[in-house]
Specification:
The protein is mainly beta. The protein has no helices and eleven strands. Strands 2, 4, 5, 6, 9, 10 and 11 form a seven-stranded mixed beta sheet that branches. The relative contact order is 0.31.
């Protein structure tokens, strides 16, 4: 059974940092591309970042480029999202998702809430 379990969300002041984690199981993590996707209150899903498998190429939405860093630890089957210089507009539920071979998302975690507020 595939499982993706996010953690690390919380309340942080503007300008602060958080590190999200997503622990994966039930599939060959090291061969899989992973994504972070977020959903702000009252809005649709927004892609945040991708990291690909062995060569670990990374990609970011313009809205987070230069502030967020995605990484992975294949030994721990975990993908991370380091979020720095957080803004109020980063407030959202953050989901990690497994990217299928066709480029769609075939599995999702339950999400972790991030609130950026003073």
């Amino acid at each position: 059974e595939v499982q993706l379990v996010e953690s690390g969300g919380g309340l942080v002041q503007p300008g602060g940092s958080l590190r999200l984690s997503c622990a994966a199981s039930g599939f060959t993590f090291s061969s899989s591309a992973m994504s972070w996707v977020r959903q702000a209150p009252g809005k649709g899903l927004e892609w945040v970042s991708n990291i690909y498998s062995r060569i670990s190429n990374t990609y970011y939405a313009d809205s987070v480029k230069g502030r967020f860093t995605i990484s992975r630890d294949n030994a721990k089957n975990t993908v991370y999202l380091q979020m720095n210089s957080l803004k109020s507009e980063d407030t959202a539920v953050y989901y990690c998702a497994k990217v299928s071979e066709t480029g769609s998302y075939d599995y999702w975690g339950q999400g972790t809430q991030v609130i950026v507020s003073s």
